[in-house]
């Protein structure tokens, strides 16, 4: 059962079907007995037939799952969705991306599908403009119900879906009603001007993406079937951050080269430290001599990140051990923040 799974588990979904097809041909060739001698047939029946039957059963299961995935992939909106997500990451055509997200909400696609797009828009821009946030939040409540108000609140607290700080800061002194109205109008005008700008604004997400080289250039060719770059797990559009950080350790044995870049990430960073045996004081190490690296992720890790780390280990001939508190996905994360009866 697990033999077929182990062969395909790290592959990009679009290339799995061809691998399963080749596997089916291989099993068919093994099952052919017409050219076998009596002794070969006896050996085949007693030693190999049971294993081949098990592989046939496993293969049928995976082909069935693959058909479901391919049917979803062939839908017109799937390719459009991938293009929109790529544009959001690149900071391009953001007005079109926002309109697409509104369409997803108003067509009442699954709530998790809509929220994931809304969160991606927010994260990539350090929050949405106030007008855009209010508009999307209102449309979302109207489409999916007020039971998700708490979900929107939790996402805002986590920094996953929030509005940007006002472009015009409020006055430190108490203003008159006329001044308030004028300020509100000025803020709205400023937001409209910001919205109309064609080129992407600066954001911490783009700074991190650039410093850690998370988004491959369009000119870069990514082989999805025989990958040599970790971005293959997302179709060549994005490299998981945990992969880039681990790569620095695997290749250079230290995070020293990324010390400044690590300051861009939330939270504190402890780089290559160990305790002195005699004094007990913590001292920095110079390198990591071992070819085994243990990566532990608190909060959860995605299967895409695991696949990227496995490829990294293969490319550099090292053993990467992965530990985590749980396996997560965008859908499962939103489920923990949503009502029990959420669809």
UniProtKB/TrEMBL annotation:
Q: What is this protein called?
A: Vacuolar protein sorting-associated protein 33B
Q: Which organism is it from?
A: Larinioides sclopetarius
The taxonomic lineage of its organism, from the top, reads: Eukaryota, Metazoa, Ecdysozoa, Arthropoda, Chelicerata
A Pfam match is Sec1
Q: Which InterPro entries match?
A: Sec-1-like_dom3a (IPR043127), Sec1-like (IPR001619), Sec1-like_dom2 (IPR027482), Sec1-like_sf (IPR036045), VPS33_dom3b (IPR043155)
The entry sums up its family as follows:
Belongs to the STXBP/unc-18/SEC1 family.
- One GO term of the biological process aspect: vesicle-mediated transport
């Amino acid at each position: 059962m697990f033999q077929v799974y182990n062969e395909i588990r790290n592959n990009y979904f679009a290339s799995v079907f061809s691998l399963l097809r080749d596997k089916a041909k291989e099993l068919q060739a093994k099952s052919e007995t017409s050219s076998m001698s009596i002794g070969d047939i006896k050996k085949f029946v007693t030693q190999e037939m049971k294993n081949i039957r098990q592989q046939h059963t496993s293969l049928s299961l995976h082909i069935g799952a693959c058909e479901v995935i391919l049917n979803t992939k062939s839908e017109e909106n799937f390719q459009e969705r991938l293009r929109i997500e790529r544009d959001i990451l690149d900071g391009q055509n953001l007005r079109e991306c926002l309109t697409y997200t509104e369409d997803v909400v108003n067509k009442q696609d699954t709530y998790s599908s809509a929220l994931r797009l809304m969160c991606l828009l927010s994260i990539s821009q350090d929050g949405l403009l106030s007008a855009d946030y209010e508009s999307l939040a209102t449309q979302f409540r109207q489409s999916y119900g007020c039971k998700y108000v708490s979900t929107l609140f939790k996402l805002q607290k986590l920094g996953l879906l929030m509005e940007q700080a006002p472009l015009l800061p409020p006055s430190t002194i108490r203003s008159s009603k006329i001044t308030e109205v004028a300020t509100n109008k000025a803020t709205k005008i400023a937001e409209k001007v910001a919205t109309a700008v064609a080129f992407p604004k600066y954001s911490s997400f783009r700074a991190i993406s650039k410093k850690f080289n998370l988004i491959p250039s369009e000119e870069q060719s990514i082989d999805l079937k025989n990958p040599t770059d970790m971005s293959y797990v997302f179709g060549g559009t994005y490299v998981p951050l945990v992969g880039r950080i681990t790569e620095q350790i695997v290749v250079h044995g230290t995070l020293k080269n990324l010390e400044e870049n690590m300051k861009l990430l939330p939270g504190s960073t402890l780089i290559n430290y160990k305790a002195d045996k005699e004094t007990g004081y913590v001292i920095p190490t110079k390198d990591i001599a071992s070819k085994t690296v243990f990566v532990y992720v608190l909060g959860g890790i995605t299967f895409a990140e695991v696949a990227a780390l496995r490829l990294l280990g293969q490319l550099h001939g090292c053993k990467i051990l992965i530990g985590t508190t749980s396996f997560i996905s965008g859908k499962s994360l939103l489920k923990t923040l949503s009502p029990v009866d959420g669809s």
